[in-house]
Amino acid sequence: MAKNDSPEKKALMKELSGLGNLIRGSLIHATRKCGKKTCRCWHGGPEHQYNYLSISTTHARNKQVYVSVANLKKVENGVAAYKRAWEILEELSALNLAELKDNSDKQ
Ligand SMILES: [Zn+2]
Fold first, then answer.
1. 78 and which of 23, 45, 48, 88 could share a cystine (Cβ 3.0–4.6 Å)?
2. Which residues have their alpha-adjacent CB atom under 5 A from ion ligand 1?
3. 1 pLDDT exceeds 90?
4. CA 78 / ligand 1 centre spacing (Å)
């Protein structure tokens, strides 16, 4: 952190450093039939809910990671933290760009 950083930048960098357990991806809530043909889901009953994380990759297909109910809250928080981290990076970049413009005006 540089000495002459604005309070706005300092606050953003502090918030960024406090974001833990970032997770990149989109949390998807879906339903499906299970493997048991005798189960209610095969006989008109409601299908089973499950959650997964869809992660874009450099390959054509997105990667999908199953998320258990026990991990759901953790993953939700991680995805939200990742999104906020991106917003902060964008804001910091905009502030740094604005500083460049200020400097060039003075020359
Ligand atoms: Zn079932």
1. 23
2. 34, 39, 41
3. no
4. 29
